[in-house]
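$ fold --in a.seq
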Amino acid sequence: MSFNSATSKAKARATVTKLFEDVLPGTTLLPLKKVKVTDASAFALEARKHRQSKEEVRKKNKLVRARQNREINKRLEKDKKFQKLVRYNVIKSHKNGQAAAPEGEQKYLKKLIKKNSNALRRFADVNDPEIQEEIAELQKEIINMKNEKFDRAKDRKLDAKLLAFNEKIKSGLLTYPGLTPGLAPVGLDDESDEEEDDD
C-alpha cells in the first residue's frame, strides 16, 4: 500500500495498532510515535467534528445577526439621546437669550411639552404624597410658563399694531376728514362762540 505523505502513513499505522490493541490485548506492532499534526489537518479534523446541518448554521447566523442588530440599535438609541440633549440645550440657550425660537424649535417644544404632560398624567395615579407635591409644583410651573409666554406674545402683537398704526398716520396713509389742524370741523356752527360772547 502506498501513502501520499508520512502523516497519512502514521495515521493508518496508529489506527491499525489501536485496532489490534482493542482486539488482542497486549500486542502492539510498533511503538507509537508522536505524529505531528499540521494546522490544515487540525482544522479539517475540527471541521469534521463540528459539522453542522444547514439549519444549525442558519440558526447560528440568525443569532449573530440578532446580536449585531441589538448592538446597532443600542448605538442608535444612544446617538438619538445625545442628539435630543444637544437640541434641548440649543433651545434652552435660545430661551435664556430671549431670542425668538424658529418654527422647527417651537414645534419641537410643543411636542416635548405634550409628551411630558402625558407622562405626568400617567404618573398622577401614584399615591405617594411627595410625588403628588412635585407633580403639582411642575403643573403650576408649566401653567405659569404658558401664561408668561402668552402675555409676552400678546404684548408683542399689540406693540406691533400700535407701531404700524402710528407709521401709517405719520406717512399720511390714514387721514380723517374734518380734522384739519387749525380749522374748525366742517358742519359745526358758531353757536358756541355766540354763547361765550353773551356772558
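$ fold --in b.seq
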Amino acid sequence: MARKRGGRGSSSRTNSLDESLVSLDRSRGPLFLEKKEQSASSPGRPDGHRDPMCCRRPQNRMRITDLEAIDISRAFSEKPHLKGKLKEVLARMGVSLTFIGDTNKAQPYTCPLLDEDTCLVHRSAKPIECLAIRDDETFSQEGRRSIERRDQLNQDLFANNWEYKSIPLMLANYLMDAEGPAVGKSGSTLRKEVQKKKRRDDSDRRNAGDES
C-alpha cells in the first residue's frame, strides 16, 4: 500500500494542506474551461465528462497523487451527495484491490469513483489528469501545466514522501482514516470560502471608503 501520511499535526501544517488543496482546485478551473471550448466545437458529454468507457478496465489506467487522494476523501466526508455513496465506492475499491498490484506503474482497473456512467467527484474533487487528458490520450499545454502544478504542490507539502499510484491504492490510505489529513474540507469548499471572504473584505473596504 501507499505510505499513509501522519495525523493532522500542527495548525501550520493543517493550514499548508488547506492552502495546497485550494491551489489544486484552482488548477481545475482552466481545464474545465478547456473542456467547455472543446465541447462547443465538437459536442460530446456534458460538462467535460469523459466517455465512461475510458474509466473502465481495460482502458482506464489513471493514477493520482497523495494530495488528490486527500481531496477526494475529504469530499466524501463533507459532501452530502457523496456520503451515501461511500459504501459502494469502498466495495468497488475492494474488487480492484484484489487484482492490481501495489506499484506506481500504470495498470488497468475500473475506477471506483464511476457510478454507472458518471464520475462522482467530477465537480468536487476531480483528479487533474482525468480533466487534462484528451480523447487521443495526449495533454494540451494547459493540461501539462496543471499536472506540473499538482506535482509541485505535492513536493512542497510532502517533500519526497508522496506517491503516484492507481486510484484504489491511494484512496485505501485515506478514505477510511478518521483522524488523518483526510479529515476536513475539500479544496472546492475551501476555495469557495476564500472567494466569499474576499468579496466580503472588498465590500467592507468599499463601505469604509464611502464613510470616510
